[in-house]
Amino acid sequence: MIIGELIGTYLMLGLGLVSSVFINYNLYSKPQSRFLTGAYWGLSIFIASMFSTLFFGTANFNPIFSFAQAVNHQISWLTMLGEFVTQIFGAWLASATVQKMWSKYLNTMPVNLNFFATVPRQLHKWFYNFSWEAIGTFSIVVNAQIMDDIQITWWVKTIWSSILITAVITTVSPITGAALNPTRDFIPRLFFTKTYDKKMAQWEYSLIPIAGPIVGGILGLIVANLI
């Protein structure tokens, strides 16, 4: 299970980081297409989820999901901590891999945080950005918990959840960059800081893509349990 989380997180971020923004820049320089960003990340999550579930029986690449499953006794607290560690390690490894893979192109372009971490459309609208991060995470956590209780084939659940996540990312991405996952933003932001420029890492904003998903995830867990 733990190995599945590591490989899945690595695949998801390896496919999504840098690649999605770089391809978007080349196809839609002004303005960029939020639909392409949403579709690309949705496809990245779908591929990682299918691979991880097929071979390891699990697809938790988000610490919010791991926490929700631990609260509902679907996994142990020790397993949750193990998933946290592997999600962090997988995110760092993916960041390093894509930086190496795209270095030829990145070195010819201005240093851009958006290649790694999320960058909101309006940096100083903290509550607005927080709300959208919370709403987006709320939606996918409620879906994930409901899917656990529905007796249908795993691949049908994976396809449906990937479609929903794609829709959520497509909606939230042009507003906040759509983290919806503390690890997805914090670890690549830390990697960017260590590799490129700390002053451009926007650490003053970084609390939002951490707090928003946590609050949205807790509310989603409460609502899903009530349902």
Please supply descriptive tags for the structure shown above.
10 helices, single chain, 227 residues, mainly alpha
- Count of individual beta strands: 0
Distance between the termini: 28 Å
Which regions contain 5 or more consecutive residues with pLDDT less than 50?
A: none
Order of helices and strands: HHHHHHHHHH
Average the pLDDT over all residues and give the rounded result: 87
Shape type: globular
Main sheet specs:
none
**What structural class do the secondary elements suggest?**
mainly alpha
- The percent of residues in helical segments reads over 70%
Q: Count of helices?
A: 10
Beta-strand percent range: under 5%
Gyration radius, to the nearest Å?
17 Å
Write the layout of secondary structure elements.
Layout: H1 2-16, H2 19-27, H3 34-56, H4 63-71, H5 77-101, H6 103-106, H7 126-149, H8 154-176, H9 182-195, H10 208-226
Helix pairs in contact: 1-3, 1-5, 3-8, 4-5, 5-9, 7-8, 7-10, 9-10
Report on this structure:
The chain starts with a helix and ends with a helix. Helix 3 (34-56) runs antiparallel to helix 8 (154-176) and helix 4 (63-71) runs antiparallel to helix 5 (77-101). It has 10 helices and no strands. It is mostly helical and 227 residues long. 73% of the residues lie in helices and 0% in strands. The longest helix is centred in the middle third of the chain and has 25 residues, at 77-101.
